[in-house]
């Protein structure tokens, strides 16, 4: 699931991920929509911006996802300190398609318990979660 309130970024990410073989279950721009999708769909990963439309933010999305054992990668221009306890990592905006793909590969390796050889630029992985 993609949680992003910048329409062009959301569209680009959705298109890129689908082209790369990922199934994007939903692309939403608010906490309320993200909560609904988390309840209704089987989600394997959430890509979430921190700032969102309406009430709530990406940190709230991450809390809800964590309660359902769904990993989160923040994609944001600024990840606050508390993001470390809620997500697997943070990819700093702006990023290229190539960097997003490399970040997802690194995240996949981490989730599968394999060593991550090299992090792409702008990606921080957290050990706290």
TrEMBL record:
The keyword Phosphoprotein applies. The keyword Phosphoprotein applies. PROSITE patterns: RESPONSE_REGULATORY. The modification 4-aspartylphosphate is found at residue 49. Residues 1-108 form the Response regulatory domain. Pfam families: Response_reg. Keywords: Phosphoprotein. It comes from the Bacteria. InterPro entries: Bact_response_regulator (IPR050595), CheY-like_superfamily (IPR011006), Sig_transdc_resp-reg_receiver (IPR001789). This is Response regulator.
């Amino acid at each position: 699931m993609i949680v992003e309130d910048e329409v062009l970024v959301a569209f680009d990410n959705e298109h890129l991920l689908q082209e790369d073989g990922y199934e994007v279950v939903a692309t939403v721009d608010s906490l309320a929509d993200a909560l609904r999708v988390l309840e209704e769909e089987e989600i394997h990963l959430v890509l979430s911006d921190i700032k969102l439309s309406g009430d709530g933010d990406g940190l709230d999305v991450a809390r809800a996802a964590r309660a359902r054992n769904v990993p989160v990668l923040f994609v944001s221009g600024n990840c606050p300190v508390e993001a470390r306890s809620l997500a697997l990592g943070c990819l700093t905006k702006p990023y290229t398609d190539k960097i997003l793909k490399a970040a997802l590969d690194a995240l996949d390796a981490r989730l599968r318990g394999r060593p991550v050889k090299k992090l792409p630029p702008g990606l921080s992985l957290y050990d706290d979660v």
